[in-house]
Structure formats: C-alpha cells, structure tokens
Amino acid sequence: MKIIELQNTSELTRPCVITIGMFDGVHIGHRQMLEELKTWAKELDCLSLVVTFKNHPRQVLDKKSDNPVKFIDTKSERFQKIASCGVDYILPIEFTKEFAALTPMQFLDVLLEKINIKLLLLGYDNRFGNPMNNEYERLIEEGEYRGIKIQKDVSGIYHKDIEVSSTQIRNAISEGNIKEANAMLSRPFSITSKVVSGLQNGRKIGFPTANIVISDEKILPKAGVYATRTIIDGKTYYSVTNIGNNPTFDAKKITIETHIMDFCEDIYQKSLTIEFLDFIREEKKFANRDELSKQINKDLSDAKAFFNTLG
C-alpha cells in the first residue's frame, strides 16, 4: 500500500476502482467494503484506491460546535488500518470550505483530471459532495458518470440489532460499552501514546501506573476502570486502566493511568498501546487511601477473572 497525493498521481499507471469515505474506526462495515473494492479491482484488472480525508468535514463545517467530533482513530491509525486491509493506494484529501462547496459531479471531475477511474464503489450510507441539489441521487440512479460505473451497496451491516457505523461505535465507546464497540470494530478499541510523568498516586499506595496523554481529537471511554491489554516493545501484558480525574485525590484533570500486571520496568517516555477489553466499574471517590487500595485489589481480581475467560 502507498499513500499518494492528488497533485502526484503519476504512478497510477492502470485504471482504478475507488471508494470514498472517512473510514473512522475501519469497522466491520468498512472492512467488507474494502474487500469488495479489492474483488472489483481484481475482476476489472484495476488498482484499488481509497479516497479519504486528512480531516473530518465537521472540523471545517462545524468549527464553532459545542460538541466537536471525537475520533475512534487518529489519522495515522486510520491510514494504517485501511492499509492492513490490503488496498493498493490511499489518497487523502484536505477537506476545506472550497472542497465542501463542490457538487458530487464537480468532485468527480477533480478526481478524473488526475485518475483514470473505472468504477466507484459506495457504501449504503455514503454521500459525497455538496448536498444542496439532487446530483448525488441522480448519479446513483443513472449508475454511470463520464465512463465511471457507479456501484452502491443497498444495505448496511448489523451487530445484533445495531446498524454498524462510526457514530454508533463512538457512542458505545463514550458510554463504556467496550464489548459492543469492539464487536463492531472487529478488534479492541485502543489508545497509543508515550508514557509521561504523572502524580505518582498509584505508586504511593503500591500500584504503580503508566500515565499517558492523547490528542483532544481522540475519543475516550467514559470515566471508570477497564480490563485492558498493554503492548510495549511488541510484548503484550494484561493490565487495568483507569480513566478519570482521581476524585479520591481531588484532582481535576482527566488522566489515563494503566497498572500493568507482573511488570516492573521503567517505561517513561516509551510508546505503548492500551487495548480496552471490558468495563469493570464506574469512577468513585473513596474516603481514604486504604479504601482505594482495597478497591484496586478487587479491580485486579475482577480483571483477572475476566482475562481467565479469554483462554
């Protein structure tokens, strides 16, 4: 897989089968779409190309929103996960107000100036281009534009009774429904960051933690304690992760602290990945450190019982 820019598409020496979308989370619906993209590319002897965006449209169109969009994946995580699906190329485009003003046909015209497109594959809930007219519906109805065959899926993917979408997954994560989010993602929701210096409160009561900070754009599970896996230097360890503002210690800032089981190495400034597996309990303020220590022991016990179910 290669990442290319719209200004430099000379290496696309064969026609392309493309799809367009944000692909936040690269969930099971996205993955089915990308498998379909590769199938079409093989059948038509074309390259598979994913047209996506460097930034989310809402970051441009809803800049003053009191509820800014939070992402399942960072940009680099998203590109990496798209690449892992085996597509040939990713073409990320900067979303701007000028870009937002383009009609669907104008957007395809921009792409056609640089890319020989044989087929455009769209998800059932996918839209692109300015929605102020019915151009998009006309494109879908006609199924062709300037030699591009347009193929649109007619139904979505369901998990239980939930129609899988990035929005549904973000909602599940923010509500602490980690198992549901992971089922829709087909893998654990994760956070990757460097270990930073913390308040050392965990160490003071016998439970040292690795503290991390993440981008404001990354979605966080709701405050509470989670059974997690932590990956450091390619090795995976079971862990318990707390998200919250340490109410027992009257802290104010939201922190992410992970106690890694059976681990005592110095990992300050190292990069680690935390995979969230299950929600253990809500955040709670304790009367003193002894009560907190007892609860942490119970959290560890509950987490180990969960890990034992994984086999």
Layout of SSEs?
Layout: E1 2-3, E2 16-20, H1 28-44, E3 47-53, H2 57-61, H3 75-84, E4 89-93, H4 97-100, H5 104-112, E5 117-122, H6 135-142, E6 144-145, E7 148-152, E8 158-159, E9 162-163, H7 166-174, H8 178-185, E10 189-196, H9 201-204, E11 210-212, E12 224-232, E13 235-244, E14 255-260, E15 271-282, H10 289-309
Parallel strand pairs: 1-4, 2-3, 2-5, 3-4, 5-7
Antiparallel strand pairs: 6-7, 8-9, 10-11, 10-15, 11-14, 12-13, 12-15, 13-14
Structural account:
By secondary structure, the chain is α/β, with parallel strands linked by helices. The protein folds into 2 domains: 2-159, HUPs (Rossmann fold); 188-309, Riboflavin kinase-like (Elongation Factor Tu (Ef-tu), domain 3). Helix content is 31%, strand content 27%. The protein is built from 10 helices and 15 strands. The protein has helices spanning 28-44, 57-61, 75-84, 97-100, 104-112, 135-142, 166-174, 178-185, 201-204, 289-309, and strands spanning 2-3, 16-20, 47-53, 89-93, 117-122, 144-145, 148-152, 158-159, 162-163, 189-196, 210-212, 224-232, 235-244, 255-260, 271-282. The strands form 3 sheets. The protein has a 7-stranded mixed β-sheet with strand order 1-4-3-2-5-7-6, sandwiched between helices. The chain has a 6-stranded antiparallel β-barrel with strand order 10-11-14-13-12-15. The chain has a two-stranded antiparallel sheet with strand order 8-9. A hairpin with a 2-residue loop joins strand 12 (224-232) and strand 13. Helix 7 (166-174) packs antiparallel against helix 8. The relative contact order is 0.12.
